[in-house]
Design a protein that fits this description.
N-terminal domain of TfIIb, iron, 716 residues, Rossmann fold, metal ion binding, 4 iron, 4 sulfur cluster binding, six-stranded mixed barrel, 4 domains, oxidoreductase, binds iron/sulfur cluster
Length: 716
């Protein structure tokens, strides 16, 4: 009888980063259970995590997995299997010629918060260190970039200051722009336990929808989409009037309060209640609860981030925490919940167009010089890279000619799919590196590079509370698939030869060698992990950063000493001013459409869509409307409707729910074109919800406003 192996890893879905134990016989995953020793979940798993083994069944793997490299030499050809050497040689020649002819900025990399930290590190070095372009961005731009910009503007570094334990230590939890019960279920379990242990704990939820999270709140603020800055400024206005701000803390540890104080004078309860569409007394109650409590903790996610004013929303909430000194103490702080499993790790290695290794900034010449020294190259290019939406616009404009997509599916997840599809058709070469051959982006690939996935990968990830987990592979690589970092390195070595560069940049044989280089890059930085090693992570378990050399443990909570990683050690208030959504409703497009996650699905469903029981909660896409709006339009429950914006349309069954206020609508984000029109039949613009979303971006974070579009809804 074959012995059952148990391998420690994490769940590959959300940023809670639950530890799992994979049970396998070495050839297939037989089961999965929560890791009782992992501090993120102590053995608990949600519906998605507990069915991971079902998504890894051999039958499904055979049907959906990309197992061999495929290549086509001409766009009109069909891709056919080719060896790794033939495929990577072809790619390297094409890259070298394109770089010589059009310069390094004619290349773009679009990667993913699903990659492990080591994969991310290598891709970043490949783009910025070898190719010589900063055109590397990731789907984390669609996820956490406004949180990053908000933290940096106010606190000086991209570092969530709180930790999961704070949920048990707080008096008030303020959940905003997050259906935590669905999107971060195991974290929400902690909140349920904290409430049972402390019946006095109050929960305030601000959300346009009355989600399951909102239904459980002590106080629900059903704000209109995009009005968060007005809400936070209004709460600060009330805290000022009622003497709930902490002037001693403000004077000692912050700067810039005078200008903000002047601004929020105008955000009277009546004005804010009108903008937000909420009752004045509820706003006042929320401000009092938040300001008076011994410890207030804010949990927030895409409702703040996926917005054309996402950075201001994040900064305005952090302003509120700074002004009331609700930060740097047990149970208090602004705490962004990471969407993807390793969006944090990607940020740590600088795997985005405006970042460099270890939270360095591309725009800072000293930071560029430090990274060049670490990598042993002359310089890192100074020209800012294209961020996600900008990158696809540049591809469509013919400026970027080669696009390498790794571990993500932009032909479903990016806003305004018409633009994205045009870009993918226009590119001279599209490379898709993925574990699955079933994603919409693969349809556009000239080259398909098969990659390993959950249960097959080695490396590390960082979760929402800055905790790094060492992941081990339970299974061997299937077919001819390679690890993401291996693919990048094999390619890089070929490109180095063609570009006559010294072959020194990618000497790694193991993920540990990559991680050790990343670790060294963090020395002296806010996320210093020089006291950690793979061995320590294995022996002591997952650890939080910072964990500098000589430390015995990581830091649970940041800024307890009132010192911030800014030039003068003070946090900065940002003078946040409310801006309406990018596309207001009007008579032609009268509905405010919001989008979001469903309880049992993950992103584009390439994995969760293979597990039958995950459709029990919701089996098909729909548009959720208020009963009043449906009645006015003679739409009955289940009737098909056209949901149309200025950019596109999709047909969906309409479902009535009291979670939505009249004038609003909601569509889950998971279903793509195959539901509506069949794979490849994409000429009709039916690309799922992103047929209708718009690519308006935040001026600082460059994150698109995926959470709101003006639409009309007509009976089909
Ligand atoms: Fe996975 Fe997130 Fe569920 Fe944990 S809460 S099991 S990380 S999906």
């Amino acid at each position: 009888m074959t012995a059952i192996r148990q391998t420690r890893a994490t769940c590959c879905y959300c940023g809670v980063g639950c530890g799992v134990i994979i049970e396998s016989d070495g050839t297939q995953v037989l089961g999965v259970k929560g890791d009782p020793e992992h501090p993120a979940n102590y053995g608990r798993l949600c519906t998605k995590g507990s069915t991971l083994h079902l998504s890894a069944s051999p039958v499904l793997q055979q049907q959906a997995r990309a197992l061999h490299p495929e290549l086509r030499l001409e766009r009109s050809d069909t891709r056919t299997p080719a060896s790794w050497d033939v495929t990577l040689d072809f790619m390297a020649k094409k890259f070298a010629n394109t770089i010589r002819e059009h310069g390094p900025d004619s290349i773009g990399f679009y990667i993913s918060g699903q990659l492990l930290t080591e994969d991310y590190y290598v891709f970043n070095k490949l783009a910025k260190g070898l190719v010589g372009t900063n055109n590397i961005d990731t789907n984390s731009r669609l996820c956490m970039s406004s949180a990053v910009a908000g933290y940096k503007q106010t606190l000086g570094a991209d570092a969530p200051p709180a930790c999961y334990e704070d949920i048990a230590l707080t008096e008030v939890v303020f959940i905003v722009g997050s259906n935590t019960a669905y999107a971060h279920p195991i974290l929400y379990r902690r909140l349920e336990m904290a409430r049972r242990a402390n019946p006095k704990l109050k929960v305030i939820v601000a959300d346009p929808r009355k989600t399951d999270t909102a239904r459980e709140a002590d106080l629900f603020l059903p704000i209109l989409p995009g009005t968060d800055v007005a809400l936070f400024n209004g709460m600060l206005h009330i805290c000022l009037w009622e003497d709930l701000v902490d002037m001693a803390y403000i004077d000692a540890h912050t700067e810039g309060f005078a200008a903000l104080k002047q601004t929020v004078r105008d955000y009277t309860p009546a004005y804010v209640a009108d903008i937000c569409g909420i009752r004045e007394q509820d706003l006042v109650e929320a401000a009092r609860l938040f300001g008076k409590s011994r410890a207030s903790l804010s949990l927030y996610c895409q409702g703040l981030n996926q917005s054309a004013s996402g950075t201001a929303k994040n900064a305005a909430l952090i302003n509120l925490h700074l002004a009331t000194a609700q930060i740097g103490k047990p149970g208090a702080g602004p705490f962004s919940l990471t969407g993807q499993p390793n969006a944090m790790g990607g940020r740590e290695v600088g795997g985005m167009a405006n970042l460099l290794s270890a939270h360095r900034d591309l725009a800072n010449p000293e930071h560029r010089a430090e990274v060049a020294r670490l990598w042993g190259i002359d310089d890192v290019p100074a020209k800012p890279g294209k961020t996600a939406v900008e990158m696809f616009e540049a591809v469509r404009a013919g400026e970027i000619k080669i696009l390498w997509i790794a571990c993500t599916n932009p032909a479903q997840s990016m806003p305004e799919q018409k633009l994205i599809r045009e870009a993918l058709r226009k590119a001279e070469l599209v490379i898709v590196q993925d574990a699955y051959k079933t994603t919409a982006s693969v349809d556009y690939a000239d080259i398909l590079l098969p990659a390993t996935t959950w249960s097959e990968k080695e490396g590390t990830v960082t979760n929402s509370e800055r905790r790094i987990t060492r992941i081990k592979a339970a299974l061997d690589k299937p077919g001819e698939a390679l690890h993401d970092w291996e693919i990048a390195i094999r390619f890089a070595r070929k490109l180095e030869a063609l570009l006559d560069k010294p072959r020194t940049l990618f000497p790694y044989e193991t993920t540990e060698e990559i991680w050790n280089e990343h670790r060294e890059s963090t020395r002296g930085r806010d996320l210093d992990i020089t006291g950690l090693s793979y061995r320590i992570l294995e022996e002591k378990g997952p650890q939080q950063w910072p964990f500098p050399e000589g430390a015995n443990s990581g830091k649970k909570r940041l800024y307890e000493d009132g010192l911030f990683p800014t030039a003068n050690g003070k946090a900065r208030f940002v003078n946040t001013i409310y801006q309406p959504v990018a596309e207001p409703v009007d008579v032609r497009y009268p509905f405010r459409l919001t989008t979001g996650r469903l309880r049992d699905q993950w992103h584009g469903m390439s994995r969760t869509g293979t597990v039958a029981q995950l459709f029990a909660h919701q089996s098909e896409p729909s548009v959720v409307m208020s009963a009043l709006d449906m009645e006015r339009r003679s739409i009955r429950n289940g009737d098909l409707v056209h949901v149309t914006s200025r950019r596109g349309s999709q047909i969906l069954p309409a479902i009535s729910s009291d979670e939505i206020r009249p004038g609003q609508a909601f569509i889950g984000m998971h279903w793509g074109e195959e539901y509506v029109s069949g794979r490849g039949a994409n000429g009709d613009g039916s690309y799922g919800v992103n047929a209708v979303t718009l690519p308006a971006i935040d001026p600082y974070s460059k994150q698109p406003e995926l959470k709101h579009a003006a639409v009309k809804i007509l009976k089909a």
